[in-house]
Request: fold
Amino acid sequence: MSVTGEITCQELVELVTSYLEGALPEKERVLFEQHLVICRACSTHLDQVRATQRALRGVGRAQIDPGARAKLIDAFREWKSQ
Amino acid sequence: MNLVVAAFSPQPSKSVLGWWQWPLERTELPHHDHVRTAPPGDAELVAALRAGDERAFVDLVEQLHPSLVRLARSWVDSPAVAEEVAQETWLGVLRGLDSFESRSSLKTWIFRILVNRAKTRGERESRTISFTDAAWRDDSSDAPSVDADRFLGPDHQRWPQHWAAPPQRWDELPEERLLGDETRALIEREIATLPPAQRQVIELRDVEGLNGDEVCRMLDLTPGNQRVLLHRARSHVRRALERYLEPA
Amino acid sequence: MIAYKFLCSGRIAPFTRHAWPEPGGDWVTGSASGATAICLDGVHACRARDLPLWLDEELWEVELGGTIVESDSKLAAERGRLTRQISAWNPGSASDFALACALRTRDQALWALRRSGTPEELGAADSLARAFTAREVLAACEAAEATAGEQAKLALGFTADAAGSALDDACAEGAYIAAHAAGVLHGAPGEIAERAWQADWLIERLELRA
Reply:
């Protein structure tokens, strides 16, 4: 059982992206997860980051401008006819 | 053998273009880059386009064009020029369709064309610093992702550098607040103020869902660089969301 | 090899969020090759002595297969499957455990108060020693603080923190506070001993094979 090395909340928040990317080395990953077990505040912060990702996904759904759409249909028909 | 993740078996929607409606929760998990294969439906879509199926093309355009335009704006200032870059991208897609080898997904390929065109056009416009740059945060800033005043100081007797007060849970808010139109507009505004490199990474990774390796190649970044940019960009957006969801 | 695993309600893994099959179902597999890969992507599990570090809602006995890698605080294996739920681990026992940890921290504060030994501190220690619920512990800490010396104040602070966790039924947090306090007051051996005590409490209460 390791008593060396613990991460603080302030350190954890800077590691969140590396953690989600799977880029933390094994030792740091274990410390990160051990910290989440004992710290409700950091678990909430991680969930906020996940919620942010979810909200970002929603940004993609805008409507195309009808003029742009028409131009692209013309371009497609022209390409098709060649 | 990959981890069997039974609860997240993908369930593509009925539309042939459903592949970007996959359960994207995968990206919220650690080590999500395991999945590499092109999404199902990609091969059908490419075949349909090559066969001249206009409906398939229009569906694709409706899904992606606004994102292409928005992303182009991180290289070129003018909305009109960004529109041109996106239009040219579609021409490039049609012309390159026959030689597209499906080594990446169709979506990745389309964005790669967009990135190259936008970069070239941006250089050609030899973009000068405009007054709006003042609103952009310094790309190299060392600002922490969460304000230092949210934590106890290093000299706190029992809990140095722990949260002074826990952050609020957002899952107790109605889903609409996180995913509604107002929130979307807020996030778009926030993204528009990011330094270009951060903006590009967060758009391609979090908005469009492209994977890390692909984005590194497209933007010519090391994985470490990309992570730093993604971290800063996400932190800005999280803070903007927090201010909006939790008015003081 | 038999080991243990904590999961969230509904057999959900706390970090990957995936749902483990019921006992008698399929093996869960991770990456197939190499010790490093197994540590990163394999199935994680606890030995009995690791239990206090990974506390969560459900405790399961798990069978591990293939190459197994032991590290400081856990096991990693190529594959695993749940064999039975330890039903003795439930909100009631978790709550008892949280209180037990708070009372252990309280004992540290008694040690510090008595060691310092002013009449006020000794009096405060006697009151604190008679506290048996989290609320009583909290009240006694607040009363004792004003006349406590430096080290005792620190110990009382930790005790109040642990009692707060017990009131919230946050047993992982309470266990951590107890171990951390022991470490601060008695160094690394103190922290190790506290975690060992916690593991023993769980083994005995839950009738686990050590």
Observations:
- Residues 91-206 of chain C form one domain.
- Chain C touches chain B at residues 12, 15-19, 21, 26, 28-32, 40-41, 154, 157-158, 161, 184 (CB under 8 Å).
- The first strand of chain C starts at residue 2 and ends at 7.
- The first helix of chain C runs from residue 35 to 41.
